[in-house]
Amino acid sequence: MSYQHHYIDGTPIHFPLGKVVCVGRNYAEHAAELNNPIPSEPLLFIKPGSCTVPLNDSFAIPLDRGVVHYEAEIAVLIGKPLSKKPSIEEVRDAISGFAPALDLTLRDVQAKLKEKGLPWELSKSFDGAYVLAPFVAGDTYADLTDIAIRLTINGEVRQDGNSSAMLNPIIALIQHIAGHFSLQAGDVISTGTPAGVGPLVSGDSLEIALGGQESFASRVL
Ligand code: ZN
């Protein structure tokens, strides 16, 4: 299901939401907490735009497929096409927004898929698997290597990260991605999760904040 996504001030975004290109293990401490090695180049996977839902007052999680983990991430909205080897300036110019997002993961399902060397879609691309807050403008942050992302659940801070700790910083990551997949206006880059991932259960209240300012509250149905 797609929806009209928008900026935090209510301004609509005039292109349809495309794919969500995600990076796994982009923070060393998160790779370590799941006993994963740090990859030598970015570990990429794609969530279809159709699995994205807006971060409203509440959102649903699957209740019949084992543990659902939250992964709070900085989402970057692409506003212009990028392909081949875009320059730093071209990437910067193509960034149209930032938002906090939850990359929901069926962790038990993913563990089985990983064990068998199978692709991750069943654990990562189910309906509702990407919960996306409204965007702030693309020029909100002068320094993309200093954007805070914080997730609080039931009043307790669970994830408190900063883009300064990314193994692949935002611009270099997008340059790398565009070298493999063409990016279109409306695509989103999900830049990986800091340490502190864990299970979500029905009734949890969440607060997710980007840049130490824009903060959104929600609840798991
Ligand atoms: Zn993730």
From TrEMBL:
InterPro entries, per the entry: Fumarylacetoacetase-like_C, Fumarylacetoacetase_C_sf
Annotated TM spans: none
Keywords from the UniProt entry: Hydrolase, Metal-binding
Name of protein: Fumarylacetoacetate hydrolase family protein
Keyword Metal-binding listed: yes
GO molecular function, one term: metal ion binding
UniProt-listed PANTHER family: ACYLPYRUVASE, ACYLPYRUVASE FAHD1, MITOCHONDRIAL
Pfam family, one: FAA_hydrolase
Residues annotated as domain Fumarylacetoacetase-like C-terminal: 19-220
Organism annotation: Aquipseudomonas ullengensis
SUPFAM superfamilies in the cross-refs: FAH
